[in-house]
Design goal:
The protein is mainly alpha-helical and 108 residues long. The longest helix has 14 residues.
Length: 108
């Protein structure tokens, strides 16, 4: 509810508590990572989103979310590698196609 209402910092604090108590809660890890990205803290989003990818390595959306965090944290090559994997898993995954094209264009 806090995330949906735009209250990012309280939402992040609550999600951090949930993850501390139940680190294997993939949905909480995912929400924490996405909230940190929305709050302009992409480097802090990498760890929880990596945990999500480790829990669901064949989920292209999980890899896309990690790629967003990596790219915004200045780790473009790592982001492109995640997107390459996501698109091997699901070649028609449009958000991944778009972000990869954008990142490749920026690195030329």
């Amino acid at each position: 509810a806090l995330l949906r209402s735009g209250q990012l910092e309280p939402a992040i604090a609550e999600l951090e508590r949930v993850v501390a108590l139940a680190p294997d809660t993939v949905e909480a890890q995912s929400q924490l990572g996405r909230a940190r990205i929305a709050a302009g803290r992409p480097a802090e989003a990498v760890a929880p989103l990596t945990a999500v990818v480790n829990a669901a390595p064949s989920d292209p959306a999980a890899r896309y979310n990690l790629a967003v965090a990596l790219s915004r944290a200045g780790r473009t090559a790592d982001a492109i590698a995640e997107l390459d994997t996501a698109l091997r898993l699901q070649p028609d995954f449009e958000p991944g196609q778009q972000l990869r094209a954008q990142l490749r264009a920026e690195t030329k």
